[in-house]
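> Could you send the Ornithine aminotransferase prediction when you get a chance?

Sure thing. Input:
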Amino acid sequence: MAPSATDILPEASSASNKGLTLSKQTSHYVDLWSKHVAVESAQDHIITDVDGKKYIDFISQFAVMNFGYSHPKIVKAAAEQIQKMPLVGTAYISPLYAKFAERITTASPGLCSQLQSSV
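Output:
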């Protein structure tokens, strides 16, 4: 059986360890980093923790709101790229990056003529 979130991060069970105090005025405020979630898996917009609890991911990081986790087309494209070359930093140039840079600069005429990246 997988460990629970509190086994992985014991402080996750105690908000007082983080110095969090919510008054009535802030009871509806969500501190995105106040609770540690030990993620087991994610599909579409649902994250499942190691205890089986499900969360709707509404934070919109890494394009989740647009595509969801494990979108079949994105998984396929990522797998194909990883088979070619898993990581291309700025020390190398790749045809895919050159095409991306051309598309960005073409889509923004007058705003930028070159693209610099740091990975």
